[in-house]
Amino acid sequence: MKAIGIDIGGTEIKAGIITEKGKILKQINIETESNQGKKKLIQNLERIIEKLDSKEIKGIGIGFAGDVDSVAGKIIQSPNISCMNKVNLVKELKKKFKKKILLQNDATLMTFAEAILGAGKKFNFVVGLTAGTGIGSGIILNKKIYSGKSNLTEIGHTTINFNGPKCSCGNYGCLELYVGIKPLMRLTEMKLEVFKSKLSEMWPLTPKKVDEAARKKDKIAISILKEQGRYLGIGLTNIVNFFNPDTIVLGGGLSNSDILINEAKKEMKLRAFKRVSNTKILKAKFKNHAGMIGGALMIFKSN
Ligand SMILES: [Zn+2]
Fold it and tell me: For residue 239, what are the contacts with CB-CB under 8 A and spacing of at least 6?
């Protein structure tokens, strides 16, 4: 059996023909071009689906970087692809493609792929956290997506500092204001104004370069990653104390730095209840393809 999996992110749309075992048989990547408006974006999607579609395709599973109503097939809102706010994407695509089409949040699909075929496949209760523009999350219980009452679980927007700055979601001091690509870069810039580091010669800076410098024993780079790790550790503590999952799978920018992950585990050990403080923290297996694979798996596992 085959399905089309699509991952719509802020900068790129990835689409592929995927087997039940998660093998990608063919893949097409295009720019999202969200500044061109919703009509263009939907046309682009139709174009790539036409290229991948055939009689053998069971359905189309789509991951979207934003808040979605998966039952209605509608995008509620997205910080980075705002042209698609309030668009019923499934309805639009069904005008052309008479197949099963399902829509889900991208981080939820990343977690789903990891829970079914990836790092969490041996476990029944998997929580996923992934760092891209913000912190996305997913909860997979007994191999099924846990959606809550209205398909919304946003662990990245739980408060870890009640005196913290206001977040785009309306809350204050959210986890994603402290951990992830943007906070890491902000912290790096702040530290470089005061301290000397090899990083000053490595502009333009990226999280990868900070990690490289840290592995070469640059003290400032190490301190930046450890600080990020401590914040992540507070987030992990909240998850294990609240849910007691079998494992937490880390994806996106969170899974790249061992220094950061080890510090997060240390912090979790200090803070969490002893019986849950050893919860397995795993790195995602599918990296950039998890959203796409999760999309296809959503089709295979649906009735
Ligand atoms: Zn928030």
Answer: 127, 129, 155, 245, 248
